[in-house]
Amino acid sequence: MVTEVPLNEELLGWDNETFQPDDPDVEDMDMDEQLMFIALFVIFAKLYTDFEHKTVDYVLEKFPDAVTKAGKKLAETSKTELTKIVEEHRVSILKEFNIHEKVIPKVKLDLDLKPTLNTLSLSAKATINQLKDDVATKAASFKAGMGEPKDFNLKANFNRAIRRTKNFVKFNAQFAKQKIKRAAQKMRYGKNMLYYWVVAGRRTCEKCYAKARLPPRPMDKWEYDHPNGHCELVPEKDNATNEYQSYLEESQKYADLTLI
Q1: What predicted TM-score, i.e. pTM, was given to this entire model?
Q2: Using CA atoms in the order 24, 25, 30, 33, what is the torsion angle rounded to 10 degrees?
């Protein structure tokens, strides 16, 4: 994750940024991503409110411990919220495959989310570390007399942290959902099925258009779609594994009970 360099205007408190601790920006996010982001935004909002009107000396003394504690909570909440997204998306995809909700808990998917959870943890850690270091740098510059005490504020620092948080929420949530979709397709169509890369529409990037011109290949030979992408992997033919058929048969039993 790229570290943003503070501007001189920010270090001196001359920037005109505002931070609204009660108004998270959830534009361009899916509903499940919004809920995850809001849960993390609340952590930053509480931390910001605790230090909004504090002096430079108070921030230098108290902020490091406070932001460390917030970082631990951010990491824990991130994992909890992403796990919710994973389970909800798993249920949604399997329902699209006509598997009854009573059968869904029995469905086994070849899915390893450890790398994604690790990326999520590192993203949260990087965000907190930059916030901690940037606030320390700003406070030290004011302590050294480089800025007027009346200009001291943490708005830009928290806005940067929020931007990074929004980015890593979307990044990790979207990759997790792609992994679930692919695992479900493998269960349905078989591990040896070939897939076409199908573009989402007119706003598709050139890289994805190029992949759409390639012949079908096994799923594991296709890279994941980039964040905010909407391209799909479409199987070369409609096929049903024995495992998938067994789930359908069991699902039909529950459907028949519903009709009685």
Answers
A1: 0.88
A2: -40
